[in-house]
Write a structure and sequence with these properties.
Layout: H1 2-22, E1 26-31, E2 36-39, H2 41-47, H3 51-54, H4 59-62, H5 66-77, E3 80-88, E4 95-106, E5 112-121, H6 123-133, H7 136-145, E6 149-154, E7 159-162, H8 164-170, H9 174-177, H10 190-201, E8 209-214, E9 220-231, E10 237-246, H11 248-262, H12 272-289, E11 292-300, H13 304-310, H14 312-329, E12 335-340, E13 343-351, H15 354-365, E14 372-373, E15 378-379, E16 383-390, H16 397-413, E17 419-421, H17 424-446, E18 449-458, E19 464-475, E20 479-481, H18 483-492, H19 496-516, E21 523-527, H20 530-533, H21 538-549, E22 556-561, H22 562-568, H23 573-582, E23 585-591, H24 598-603, E24 608-611, H25 613-616, H26 623-639, E25 642-645, H27 651-659, E26 664-665, H28 676-691
Parallel strand pairs: 16-17, 19-21, 21-22, 22-23, 23-24, 24-25, 25-26
Antiparallel strand pairs: 1-2, 1-5, 3-4, 4-5, 6-7, 6-10, 8-9, 9-10, 11-13, 11-16, 12-13, 14-15, 18-19, 18-26, 19-20
Helix pairs in contact: 13-14, 17-18, 19-21, 21-23
Length: 692
């Protein structure tokens, strides 16, 4: 029972503390000597002071207002007192019209221990009433010509007086307003009207309210008004003074701002800010009726080409047309928003099966069968879509968007122009990639990488003509991680910049060391990604690396894949000129897989073509592979390039390449990639064979 009592006491104490802190009236406590010991925030705000200034303030000895001082003395002697007057604040140095009730708190011996004062700041009402009471003769003129809207009502809510501004704004004559119940001109429900009429009769300080006022011509205006109860000399309620301001324009401006904040300026579709609210609503509704819905993340394929080739204004025209087509081809209860750029999110409500979703998606795909025409151009568009279903895949707006986005990117990876449903397997793959990314960042910090070297052999004399540097990562947590797994993640996250820099510097120093030791006289081949090519400091990095390592530029080959080269080669023209001016060689890697423009290739400053392993695998047994390899070798010779065949594993492949004019090869037939110590043994073995 004691524990329960203690709990109840704590609960009551917390409750009263909450009431004290949030009371609309100011509350202060002072002791038996008139020293302030506590005050709530409203009390501090009334006096315009901080708590530090107020606590400890000596009321009796500091006050100049004799009436207030007398009321305090009465409360300290008899227990109760009342004060209502204009008070000059000593601390805040301002005039306040206060209404104060004093109540003394006594101890068990009936001695007064402290006094509670409840304060209401009636300064604004006082000033308004003072203006109204200045002269009975001017009363009517003041009311009729005051700038703000004003109406006086009797105790039953019937209009007694109105200002000219009410007549002007409403279109009513004064006689049409006076004598009528004020609610006649309010546009509200019966229940709300009842509440508002009670609001007029409330003798306590009131908050402002907004209400629509019906004008004579049928239009409506929004009025913000407050009511001040009116009492007679006996304290009986006899009516109210109602003050108001026309806030219609302000409200409409805010509504316009709200619309702009929640809608896309270009397409007028809801934006991603509003999407979150709509998804929350859909989730709550789907929970209630136990239904499913789908979120479709749509991204236009290769839209960047329109902006780049035709300008952003043309791109905007296409996006507007896209938005219009989506709206026309969705069901009435579906929803579409522009998520940003060329991304749209579609919400498909009341979905029972994935087949139903596929049916709607197929219908959306028909949008792209028709050419997108603007005033000046015609465009052929496709899109990639990803779909997540509530509650199967996710139960929050954030997760639904994330998973539909993941599915959309999977569509992009599969070749674009398709749609993909999110799956747990796809989610696990993404989680795995994120985990690899986190570990990859640590690997960069802790230098967990190692460089392996694969020898490149001349088919003319079977001698080593160089090595290719290949990065390897043996993660303490994951073990050996294939470059096929971590290199794309490194490129996507730009971690390839520090990793690539480390590979270049380390490999150059190592090959220079082997050259000095007479172990290797050949070249070093290093792979360069598109991300590295886009980095501003690549030229500086190459120059500094050559100077620091001492390796001559003619011994360094930069390998750039054909697909990377063809995607953005025109933007790298100056960079390639700088590289060639340094004396560095350039090789086109994985040649034959990237659909090069032969006219551009003829002008490109390359030195070597590397034939992709996928073609080498099928020679000499498959005729089409042989034709492709022979064509690449012939093309290279006509352009003055050397050729290197990758992935050579058999004597038959080697002999075929030699017979058909290939210059160099690398692959498991000669050696797999080797660590530094094994590579040095390989050099020694080759040297011993030459001696013998």
């Amino acid at each position: 029972m004691k524990q329960k009592s203690k709990f109840n006491n704590n609960f009551i104490e917390k409750r009263y503390k909450t009431i004290f802190e949030n009371s609309p009236s100011g509350i202060i406590f002072f002791d038996s000597k008139g020293i302030i010991i506590e005050a709530n925030q409203t009390g501090l705000d009334i006096f315009g002071v901080t708590k530090e200034q107020f606590i400890g303030f000596d009321l009796l000895n500091s006050l100049k207002d004799e009436k207030l001082k007398e009321a305090i003395k009465i409360s300290l002697s008899s227990g109760k007192a009342y004060y209502k007057n204009l008070y000059n604040s000593v601390l805040a140095k301002k005039e306040i019209y206060l209404e104060v009730f004093f109540k003394a708190i006594r101890d068990e011996k009936n001695n007064i221990t402290f006094v509670v004062a409840s304060l209401d700041d009636q300064t604004m009402e006082y000033k308004a009433m003072e203006k109204l009471k200045k002269s009975k003769e001017d009363w009517k003129s003041i009311i009729e010509n005051m700038f703000s809207l004003f109406a006086e009502t009797d105790k039953d809510g019937f209009i007694v007086k109105v200002s000219n501004s009410v007549c002007e704004i409403s279109g009513y004559e004064r006689d049409e307003l006076v004598g009528n119940h004020i609610s006649k001109f309010w546009m509200d429900t019966a229940e709300a009207l009842k509440t508002r009429i009670e609001f007029l009769k409330d003798p306590k300080p009131t908050h402002n309210q907004n209400i629509y006022f019906k004008c004579k011509n049928g239009t409506k205006i929004l009025v913000n008004f407050s009511a001040k109860p009116k009492f007679d000399e006996n304290g009986d309620y006899i009516g109210s003074y109602n003050f108001g301001e026309d806030i219609t324009e302000v409200f409409n401006s805010r509504a316009k701002i709200d619309y702009m904040a929640t809608h896309d300026a270009l397409t007028s579709l809801p934006n991603r800010f509003m999407l979150s609210s709509i998804l929350e609503h859909s989730i709550n509704e789907a929970k209630r009726v136990k239904e499913r819905f789908a979120v479709v993340f749509l991204d236009l394929d290769n839209f960047k080409n329109i902006n780049d080739n035709f300008g952003h204004q043309e791109g905007d025209r296409v996006l507007i047309e896209m938005a219009n087509r989506l709206k026309k081809n969705l069901r009435n209860n579906d929803f579409v928003c522009r998520f940003g750029g060329d991304e749209f999110v579609i919400l498909l409500e009341h979905i029972k099966t994935t087949e139903a979703i596929s049916s709607i998606i197929e219908k959306l795909n028909k949008i792209f069968l028709t050419i997108f025409e603007t005033d000046t151009y015609a465009h052929y568009l496709k899109c990639s879509m990803g779909i997540a279903i509530y509650p199967d895949d996710a139960s929050t707006p954030e997760q639904l968007l994330k998973k539909s986005d993941i599915a959309m990117y999977e569509s992009k990876k599969k070749g674009k122009n398709r749609y993909t449903f999110y799956s747990h397997e796809l989610g696990h793959k993404v989680e795995k990639d994120l985990h690899i990314e986190r570990l990859l960042r640590k690997a960069v910090e802790k230098n967990e990488f190692e460089i392996y070297y694969q020898p490149q052999i001349s088919l003319h004399d079977d001698k080593i003509i160089g090595v290719e540097a290949l990065i390897r990562w043996n993660s303490p947590e994951l073990g050996f991680v294939s470059p096929v797994e971590f290199i794309p993640i490194a490129e996507k996250t730009h971690l390839i910049i520090p990793i690539g820099s480390w590979v270049l510097k380390t490999a150059c120093k190592q090959v220079k060391k082997w050259q000095d030791e007479k172990k290797c006289k050949g070249n070093l081949s290093v792979n360069i990604s598109g991300t590295q090519l886009n980095h501003d400091d690549l030229s500086v990095l190459l120059q500094n690396t050559l100077e620091e390592s001492g390796l001559e530029a003619r011994f360094l080959d930069l390998e750039i894949t054909e697909s990377v080269l063809m995607n953005n080669a025109e933007n790298w023209e100056k960079l390639f000129d700088n590289i060639k001016n340094m004396g560095i060689n350039i090789s086109i890697d994985d040649f034959g897989t990237g659909y090069s423009s032969l006219s551009y290739l003829r002008q490109f400053p390359a030195d070597e073509l590397k034939i992709d392993k996928s073609f080498i695998d099928d020679i000499p047994n498959k005729k089409d592979a042989c034709v492709i390899v022979n064509t690449i070798i012939a093309l290279a010779k006509s352009l003055g390039y050397k050729t290197v065949a990758e992935g050579v594993e058999t004597i038959e492949q080697k002999e075929y390449l030699k017979e058909n004019g290939c210059d160099n090869i690398q692959g498991y037939y000669y050696s797999k990639p080797l660590c530094v110590s094994d590579m040095e043994k390989y050099f020694n073995d080759c040297f011993m064979k030459l001696k013998s």
